[in-house]
Write a structure and sequence with these properties.
The protein has nine helices and six strands, in the order H-E-H-E-H-E-E-E-H-E-H-H-H-H-H. The chain has 261 residues and is α/β, with parallel strands linked by helices. The chain is globular and about 50 Å long. Bound molecules: zinc ion.
C-alpha cells in the first residue's frame, strides 16, 4: 500500500496543470515506490521499524513532488507517518482529527526562539501514556517559518526545540559540515530523543542508502555492491549492531497543562 507521502504526491500531481519537471528536467522513468530510476530502485531494501512515536508531516505545496524530498523516507521507515499539504487559507479536517486524537501528544518541532518561551520544551516526555506525535514542517526554511506563524491549529501544542549540544553531537556523528538538516535527519533526531534508537539509526542509514543510489543514478554510475550505507542498514535489520541506550525520557518534560498554555 502506498504510504502517506506517496498518496499526497499522487493527489498533488493530479492537481497539476502541467507535468512537474524536476530540476534538470529529467524525464527518465522512475519507480513509483522510491522515485529512483528502475536500475537504481531501492524498494527491495526498504526497512520498516515499529515505533511508538508517530510523524506528522506538514508539507509545503511543491514538496511532495520533489524527487529528493526526504519526508518520503520518513514515511518509508515509520509506520505511523501522516502527511498533509499545507495551505494558509484552509486546514485539512483529517489533520485536525489527528491532532485531537487522544492517543497522541503532538509536538511541533521548531526552533524555540520563534515560539513563546512557555511553549518550548527540550525533552520528549511521557504525557499520561500518550504517544509522541512529531509535527515536522517539510518545507524550505522561509516557507517553514510562514507555516509556523500561520497555523493556528498548532498554537496549543508544545514546541520541541533541539538543544545546540544535541545538534552539534549529531553534526559530529554524521560528519556534517553544517546544521541545515533535511526532514529525515530531524525525524531521526526526534526518534533518538524519544528513546527509539534503533528506528533513529535505521532512518539515518536509509537516508544514506537513498542518497548513494540517487547520486550514482544522477552520475549514470552503477550502485556499489558493498557500499557502507547498505551494509549498515543490513546490519541494523539483522540486529547485528547493538544499540546504546537512548536518553531516558523525562516525565516532567511535557505535561498537559503545558500543552494548553
Ligand atoms: Zn523502487
Amino acid at each position: 500500500m502506498p504510504h502517506a507521502v506517496s498518496v499526497l504526491r499522487t493527489a498533488r500531481l493530479a492537481r497539476s496543470a502541467k507535468p512537474f519537471l524536476a530540476r534538470g528536467g529529467s524525464k527518465r522513468e522512475r519507480c513509483a515506490g522510491c522515485r529512483l530510476v528502475p536500475s537504481h530502485c531501492i524498494c527491495a531494501l526498504r526497512p520498516s521499524v515499529p515505533t511508538r512515536a508517530g510523524m506528522c508531516l506538514l508539507m509545503a505545496d511543491i514538496e511532495p513532488l520533489k524527487p529528493t524530498n526526504t519526508g518520503w523516507l520518513v514515511a518509508d521507515v515509520v509506520p505511523d507517518t501522516f502527511a498533509f499539504g499545507w495551505a494558509r487559507t484552509q486546514t485539512d479536517p483529517a489533520l485536525l482529527a489527528l491532532l485531537d486524537d487522544p492517543q497522541w501528544q503532538p509536538l511541533v518541532v521548531f526552533p524555540g526562539e520563534y515560539a513563546a518561551p512557555e511553549r518550548v520544551v527540550h525533552e520528549v516526555g511521557a504525557a499520561a501514556g500518550k504517544r509522541p506525535l512529531f509535527i515536522l514542517l517539510d518545507a524550505t526554511w522561509n516557507e517553514a517559518r510562514k507555516m509556523f506563524r500561520k497555523s493556528p491549529c498548532l498554537a496549543r501544542f508544545p514546541v520541541l526545540s533541539l538543544r545546540p549540544e544535541q545538534v552539534s553531537r549529531y553534526v559530529l556523528r554524521r560528519s556534517r559540515r553544517d546544521d541545515h538538516f533535511c526532514t529525515s535527519e530531524v525525524a531521526a533526531l526526534c526518534l533518538e530523543l524519544a528513546g527509539e534508537t534503533r528506528a533513529s539509526a535505521t532512518l539515518e542509514a536509509w537516508l544514506d542508502v537513498f542518497t548513494h543510489h540517487y547520486v550514482q543514478a544522477r552520475n549514470q554510475l552503477p550502485v556499489l555492491a558493498d557500499n557502507e550505507a547498505c551494509e549498515r542498514l543490513r546490519a541494523l535489520q539483522a540486529g547485528a549492531i547493538r544499540m546504546h541506550a537512548g536518553p531516558v525520557p523525562k516525565v516532567s518534560g511535557i505535561s498537559s497543562d503545558r500543552a494548553t498554555s
